[in-house]
Amino acid sequence: MSNENPQQATDEYLLLIRGTHWNHGMSPAELQKTMTDFYAWADGLSEAGILRGAQPLMEDGKLVSGSKGSTVTDGVFIECKEAIAGYFQLAVGSMDVALDHARACPILEYGAEVEVRPIADLCRPMAEVKKESKTS
C-alpha cells in the first residue's frame, strides 16, 4: 500500500476549540464581554447558513483502548491548553474559508486555539481498502 492518503475531503470542516482554561485571570466584566463576542461569532456562523453543528465538551471523560476495549481509563489526561473544549462543524467548501472563520474566533486573543480539520469522505483504512480494490 502507498503512503499517499486516499481519503477525499468533503465540503465540511471541523473547528476544534482547544484550551479549557483560557479565561483564568479575567475579570467578570471581561469574561462577560468575551462570551458575548464569542456567542455573536457563533450566531454569525448560524446566520450565514454554514453551521452544521456545535457543542461544548466536558473536561472529564474516559479513554477506551486495548483489544475489545479491555482498558478504560478515567480522564483525558491532556494539558488543559490542549484539551478540546468544543467543536463547530462548518459547511464552507474550502480550507481558506474555514481558516477565515477560525481566525475570527474571539477567544483566540486569550490563549485558546482553533484546530481546523477537513472532514473526510471515508476513514483512512476504508479509503485504502477501496483504493486497493480498484487497482486489483
TrEMBL record:
Pfam families listed in its UniProt record: YCII
UniProt cross-references to InterPro entries, sorted A to Z: Dimeric_a/b-barrel, YCII
Domain named YCII-related: residues: 29-118
Protein name: YCII-related domain-containing protein
Family: Belongs to the YciI family.
